[in-house]
Amino acid sequence: MALFLAASLFISLIVSASSIAAAPSPSAVVNGGIASTAQEMQRARYFTFVMLIRMVQEKIPHNTTFLMPNDRMLSTASIPENQVLEFLSRHSIPALLMFDDLIRLPNGTIVPTSHSSQTITITNMENQKLYFNNVELTSPDVCHVGNLFRGKASNVH
Ligand SMILES: *[C@@H]1O[C@H](CO)[C@@H](O)[C@H](O)[C@H]1NC(C)=O
Ligand SMILES: *[C@@H]1O[C@H](CO)[C@@H](O)[C@H](O)[C@H]1NC(C)=O
């Protein structure tokens, strides 16, 4: 399956912070963490991406940063049920990265995705605009503890 990122025009950055300590069991930590992240995504109206997350949410590792194509883009994708996790892993970076972390990376930094055969090149254009494989980041930090849509949240186009 092709990396949809490359075909989509805009993506947003979602960070799934893991809940730390004091949780009754590891699975509760995973579910609680990803469930609240999914709620934030939903409030930000990434309905299709939320649906994909919920299909496999117990398999999503902690400390993941999601690169979310918007609903319009996802409506053109056909993702077989058994490839949902793979699709999400190609749109994830296995680290908690906020916009402030990303903007400090050297221009052209290549980062791994959660999928072993896929990397993403992060380009830093002028005016603090970040591109992931030439796809513009429009809404950084959609999920960040009570700090929705920090930075640019562009719905232009
Ligand atoms: C997630 O990140 C935190 C803080 O960096 C770290 O303490 C924790 O071990 C990480 N959890 C996993 C499952 O990698
Ligand atoms: C980063 O690299 C791209 C091309 O690879 C270039 O167009 C852009 O101006 C560079 N950004 C900065 C801030 O130098």
TrEMBL record:
InterPro entries: FAS1_dom_sf, FAS1_domain_protein
UniProt keyword Hydrolase present: no
Keywords assigned by UniProt, alphabetized: Signal
Keyword Cell inner membrane: no
Residues annotated as signal peptide: 1-17
Name of the molecule in the record: FAS1 domain-containing protein
Native organism: Oryza meyeriana var. granulata
Higher taxonomy: Eukaryota, Viridiplantae, Streptophyta, Embryophyta, Tracheophyta
